[in-house]
Amino acid sequence: MPCLDALASNDAAARDILGDTRAKLVFRVQGGPAITIGIADGAVTVTRGAAAGAAVILHFFSDRHLNASFAGKRWALPLLAWGGWRIGLLTRFTRLTDRLKAVMDGSAEVLATAEGRALHARLSLIAAGLGLGPLARGDSSAQAALSLAPPGLAVFAIRGAHHATVWFDHGSRDCNAGWGPPPREPDVEISFIDSAVAFAALRGEIDTIAAIGAGQIRVSGLIPLADGVNMAMERLSDYLQT
Amino acid sequence: MSTPDPRYRRSLELFTRAAQVIPCGIYGHTSPVANLPGEFPYYAGRASGSRYWDVDGNEYIDYLCGYGPVVLGHQHPEVEAAAARQQAAMLCVNHPGEIMVELAEHLVGMIDFAAWSVFGKNGSDMTTWALQVAREHTGRRKILKVTDAYHGIDPWCTPGHAGLLPEDRMHIHDFAWNDLDGFERLLRAHRNDVAAVIMTPFHHPAFKASQLPAAGFWPHIEAACRREGIVLILDDIRAGFRLDLGGSHRTFGFEPDIICLCKALANGHPLSAALGRADLRVAASRVFLTGSYWNSPPAMAAALACLKVMQREDTPATLRARGEALMQGLVAAGDRHGYRLIPSGPPAVPFVTFADDGNMRRQQRFCAAVTRRGAVFHPHHNWFLSSAHTPEDIAATLLMADAALTELRAEGL
């Protein structure tokens, strides 16, 4: 969901879909978390919690229900708790998430252009970075990997025209993660020289050790932290592909 | 490495070629990733005494010594002559040479508790085989080791993450260095199932300061192993012969059952050894051990020559003196510039870190700045002295360190 923000900011096709829509949609899981997606002026904001005045409220009965719904299972349609008549808005939002899926999955159409590949890399990095918080809180394999790493703030960045930065504060109480400027000087920074290198690295298509030696990927600071965070990050693909 | 350093132009050219045909370009502990990519040379051209030259012709005083093997200095004439004589006679034949017997006899005479010796090529050959011997001897499964300790690249101990199964480490259990409570907890949890405890004589993890054993730590470990019938394996691959020619256990006041040696054994020639107590001899004979080049005589001749030089010259005393001078000089240089430098490990196998440098950036900039001036300091791995390091080398290095600290201060680090 947080990637919708980056998608709208960086993808003309997504902005075309949004048009002049102004609305809020709430996603809530019964007995669990809720988020609000705000759409206005061709931009998307994602905030935790259920904001008042939502045009649409989508209710999921469990985490499993939500996961199945986002995996495209027909039996797992959410309960439209409010706003079922907002067909136009729901259609736009479905088109937006379809576009996000195409970018995140790296569909042939998206990867056919340099812009599409850069967008795919950017959103993959953001998803991987933001996914670290939930992994650190709830995935035993990621927790095991992180337990070997020293605490500190790790930053992953793409340099160049399609720059993007995500950060993860390992050892902080809530395993904080975010994208954009980090809250303090990082303890380790892993930066890709451009989006093409990031694209290849995030898809596991290059020898990252050789890329580091050649200066295409730069690692500075507390290397064991980068190692542990990278191991934890690898768990993300298991969830996204489920 | 935003802009390639022209000092390393040839290194980077070679690396670019290597990356086309060799996974990682350079893999393992010499990979640029383990150091500071772009800030250190990648390829070496030649070496002599305490120095080596990279492929771009830059000269360095060598405080890595090939990551340990070079204890007498590069290309030591007596060692090289002994190896060359053997190589002229035979390199790889169908049988061991007489030199293997001579070397085993010599080593058994040097290591006080040992009754036998075997040979391999690398440290991992010996540590993994020693575990098998311990399991064969005890009929038990469990191995206790120290967290973050390096014992080689086999699946039970590699610091790498890839290509492993959970089953590879099902019977490997860690405790923290100097944590006797943690050690005792593991003994209680696996009573009568612990085959071996494998440890280095002092703790020298990568990316951290080295740690010496606390008072009573080694005697406690040794006593527990004796009490429980556990084989105590000393992984002396990194420190062996640098602290004491009879094995590093003598420095720290205990006695293992098996000692694994490599690195300084043959001054850079490929050879490792394991030596053990008489009561492990039968188990040692049962565990299969071999390799295509393991009987090759030149490395054994180099080892015998190296051992004799070290005995004649009391090499550990020289290493200790040079190491102390280097450490004391670095601490003093730090004080002059307002930095608290913290020496760790024995002076012969030293390491220096900065206080208040949790993310290691100051350490990394300092080591890169000294290396650029002509003395190789690794930012993440302990350093090594060789007997070829002269007082003049140490003095020259301290001048470079002083200039590097001036640079750090100017950068505001």
Structural topology:
The complex is a heterodimer of chains A (242) and B (413).
Chain A: H1 2-10, H2 12-18, E1 23-29, E2 34-40, E3 43-48, E4 56-60, H3 63-70, E5 79-82, H4 87-105, H5 108-111, H6 114-138, H7 140-147, E6 152-158, E7 164-170, E8 177-179, E9 188-192, H8 195-202, H9 208-213, E10 217-221, H10 223-233, H11 236-240
Parallel strand pairs in A: 1-4, 6-9
Antiparallel strand pairs in A: 1-2, 2-3, 4-5, 6-7, 7-8, 9-10
Helix pairs in contact in A: 1-2, 1-6, 2-4, 6-7, 6-8, 7-10
Chain B: H1 9-21, E1 44-48, E2 51-54, E3 59-62, H2 77-89, H3 98-110, E4 116-120, H4 123-138, E5 142-146, E6 172-175, H5 180-189, E7 194-199, H6 217-228, E8 231-235, H7 249-252, E9 258-261, E10 272-276, H8 281-286, H9 297-313, H10 315-337, E11 341-344, E12 351-354, H11 361-373, E13 375-376, H12 391-411
Helix pairs in contact in B: 2-9, 3-9, 10-12, 11-12
Count of domains of chain A: 2
- Main CATH class of the largest domain in chain A: Alpha Beta
CATH topology of the largest domain in chain B: Aspartate Aminotransferase, domain 2
How big a fraction of the residues of chain A is strand? 15-25%
CATH architecture of the largest domain in chain B: 3-Layer(aba) Sandwich
Q: How do the helices and strands follow one another from N- to C-terminus of chain B?
A: HEEEHHEHEEHEHEHEEHHHEEHEH
Adjacency order of strands in the biggest sheet of chain B: 4-10-9-8-7-5-6
Superfamily (CATH H level) name of the largest domain in chain B: Type I PLP-dependent aspartate aminotransferase-like (Major domain)
Helical content of chain B (DSSP H or I, runs of 4+): 25-40%
Alpha-beta content class of chain B: alpha/beta
How would a crystallographer describe the biggest sheet of chain B? 7 strands, mixed
CATH topology of the largest domain in chain A: Nonspecific Lipid-transfer Protein, Chain A
Report the span from N to C terminus of chain B: 19 Å
What general outline of chain A do the C-alpha atoms trace? globular
- The CATH superfamily of the largest domain in chain A appears as SCP2 sterol-binding domain
User: What is the total tally of β strands of chain B?
Assistant: 13
Low-confidence stretches of chain A: none
Tell me the number of helical segments of chain B per DSSP (H or I, 4 or more residues long): 12
Low-confidence stretches of chain B: none
The CATH architecture of the largest domain in chain A comes to 2-Layer Sandwich
